[in-house]
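S1.2 Input.
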Amino acid sequence: MTPDTSYDTVIRRGRWFDGSGAPSAVRDLGLRDGVVVTISAAPLEAPDGARVIDAEGCWVLPGMVDIHTHYDVEVLDGPGLAESVRHGVTTVFVGSCSLSTVHVDPVDAGDLFGRVEAIPRLQVIDAVRRHRDARGWDDAASYVAALEALPLGPHLAAFIGHSDVRTAVMGLDRATRAEVRPTAAELDRMEAMVQAALDAGFLGMSSQQLLFDKLDGDLCRSRTLPSTYARRGELRRLTDLLRATGRVLQSGPDITHPQTIVQAALDSVPRRGRKALRTSLLSAADIKAVPPAVRIMGPLARTVNRLGGDFRWQHLPVPFEVYADGIDLVIFEELGAGAAALHLADRVARDELLRDEAYRRRFRKDYDSRFGPRVWHRDFFDAEIVACPDASVIGMSFGQVGVERGGLHPVDAFLDLVVEHGTALRWRTTISNHRPALLRMLAADPGVQMGFSDAGAHLRNMAFYNMGLRLLRHVRDAERAGTPFLTVEQAVHRLTGELADWYGLDAGHLREGSRADVVVVDPTALDERLEEYHEAVVDHYGGLSRMVNRDDAAVRAVLVSGRLVVEHGQPTPLLGRERTGAFLRVGERVPPVAPARPPSARAATTQAASAPAGAAAEVAGA
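S1.3 Output.
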């Protein structure tokens, strides 16, 4: 063995992936003070007091990067972000879809996040108010300082939200009126806010043109997000800052007007002496409602990039399965009738509307329409009831219920059950990514980025916290079946180094000298448990029970800044109580977060608490 008395952690005999796509190999890793100091083909000797992780038969990966979350609110009261970290994510992006909490006041934050992202509005208002009052942030730099004062679990990187700055400058009412344009002074202020965020190391700016994202609250309820009201001149002025600095525009097009998708892609191309606009667009998906669309996405990205653009689609590399309680689901916002129901926050008024025959005729007409772009396939025969006080309908589709009730239209069967049972009626459907062959095609496309988990949002509707593990399973299974579409090395690269490098972050790699953000995965446990449905109570959201993924056997260990935050799928006491994550600034090398206690003392304490009786100082695999 190679002697070295300076390691505080040794990871033994795992199949090591460096995050670049290079061939993997069995190695020992020696960590010291949050840095990978040795990667050795020969076994490493662990000094007395060091933590030892037995990774034999496991994959040792860089921590995964989640490029699309809405953790902006949850991070304030739950900074460990355990649902993502326990599945191997060590870097998360906030500020997606034009939404951030850098500038808006607490009530406006509640109106922006509550309905669009299905996060409890009152909890949004309370969390932003308490933390802003305590930390005093009022611009990008002080916002970063406020985040880093929290006991962050993973590392964070951020977009500045277009709706955030537009609302802060114009006020939410003026920012959501089509006839109102910002004054020259207001445009100057928006530009200054975006520039300040870029100076603070933000990834870029997020915007949104999707018209079924609606506001919560009373003042502007059911209007679309502020960024959707911006004209091209306003957006061009802000994106010129991104072009000049090489930062990213993350955006969602108005799918009701397909030409806006093409325009958003073409906007990435250099023009009139300006640089390419690095663009990450929502989203590459095999949508049931529009099957041919998936065939266009790859060629569009390749064409734009051949013209000098720097364009990527965001893609969720798993089936897009959603759940709903009654009618509370964002997909209904794309129907006029659905949006009318969701506009009514009062249950009694909503039920009265749902009973009305004129309203039902309108809903049936919207449902039966097969013209125009849409996200939802509008097929209640493809919607399974999974929970209901009336047990006789569980396992049936709404279409089947209608047939059994004398040939009711599926819409009437659905609305009858919603009126009768409200949110106690729970059902599910798959919106997109249902064909494995096309999922493989998208996962291998160089114009596609792995992302769009929406972690931290739609808490009752979807759970893609472990999408990276599910992609690894898909790749491993295809390799075993003799139909590979990516190597495991390439898949790891797509989830780690490829993303970090494109966004300019110090993350996603596991080499000598790298910060020790490490995930130890047991590939034998990448199985059907990854798709199992579970729920967990979120205390800081008023006890709301949210959908989660739980396959504790798949992840043996997660280390952030070299410190053990997950062990055998379970968060350690460290996660969310002591800071391990940092704010990652674009283009800057970020050192490990120093522990509150010396590494040797911490390691000894952890071993004493967790090692089985009679065991040596070694954390063995399951």
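S1.4 Remarks. The CA atoms of residues 286 and 433 lie 5 Å apart.
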